[in-house]
Amino acid sequence: MAKSEGKAFSSAQDIALIVGAGPGISSSCARLFAESGMRVAVAARDPDKPVLEALERTHGVRRYACDASEPAAVKRLFEDVVLEVGTPRLVIHNIDGRVPGIFRKSIVEADPLLALETLRAAAFSAFLVSQQAARFMLENELDSKGGKGTIIFTNASAALKGFPSSGAFAMACHAKSGLAQSIARELMPQGIHVANVPIDAVIGWTQEDGTRAHRRAGTTVDDNMVDPDSVAETYLHLHRQHRSTWAFEVVLRPWVEKW
């Protein structure tokens, strides 16, 4: 496990855990949450990514190693975070789950083992993370807005529509949506806000030269790609919603996206 030395924080601070950390949405969320006064922990298979090390230096974010598709690893992650940082009131599952070799494969070409791995990486990990989040959040006291915590699933266009030659990913994204619906109906009456956020577009994050770009779609032009900083603002707003107006499904897409 990699973690920062950190400074002493008040136990009264809001605590966020982001599972599936990288240079896009997770990093934007970590920065915004920390700048908003929250204590932030991030988890990734490789917590030593340069972008995560930078977040530790600049924003005091704590880093944890975790394979979120392994039940024991997720259980240990939450136990470590609760012990060393505190019980999260905001947990974000931000794992895409697509594995190399499954992209653009027709139903007759797709490797069944890679399809299973996609389900495991995306949907099963979402189950494991939300299970542990619920176990600890249910013990939280109600906050001033009537909640004990927030669980957010980052999802994709495939949660809304199954594209050709994308059966495994569509299956996994639909599974995450079904999980989110089920636990929202179960947990929201108990004070835990659950939100499913399909992002219907490619995400362009800030590169070293200051431009926003995507590894396949190129550089953003006139806000034609999702800005992860704006996604982070949406997530923070969801977390701060009053329980009388908890949003369940929020679909994000740029103004020029065809849908």
How would you describe the overall organization of this protein?
- This protein has 259 residues and is of the alpha/beta class.
- It has one domain: NAD(P)-binding Rossmann-like Domain (Rossmann fold, 3-Layer(aba) Sandwich).
- Helices cover 37% and strands 16% of the residues.
- A six-stranded parallel sheet has the order 3-2-1-4-5-6, sandwiched between helices. Strands 7-8-9 form a three-stranded antiparallel sheet, with no helix packed on it.
- A hairpin with a 5-residue loop joins strand 7 and strand 8 (212-214).
- Helix 3 (71-84) packs parallel to helix 4 and helix 4 (112-137) packs parallel to helix 5 (167-187).
- The protein is globular, with a radius of gyration of 18 Å.
- It starts with 14 loop residues before the first strand and ends in a 19-residue tail after the last helix.
- Residues 3-11 have low confidence and may be disordered.
Describe the protein's topology.
Layout: E1 15-19, H1 25-35, E2 39-44, H2 50-59, E3 62-65, H3 71-84, E4 90-93, H4 112-137, E5 149-156, H5 167-187, E6 192-199, E7 205-206, E8 212-214, E9 218-219, H6 228-240
Helix pairs in contact: 1-2, 1-6, 3-4, 4-5
Radius of gyration: 18 Å
Count up the domains: 1
The CATH C-level name is Alpha Beta
What is the straight-line distance between the termini? 42 Å
* Biggest pleated sheet: 6 strands, parallel
Name the beta content range.
15-25%
Question: And the CATH topology?
Answer: Rossmann fold
Mean pLDDT: 91
Q: Could you state the order of secondary-structure elements as H and E?
A: EHEHEHEHEHEEEEH
Unreliable sequence segments:
3-11
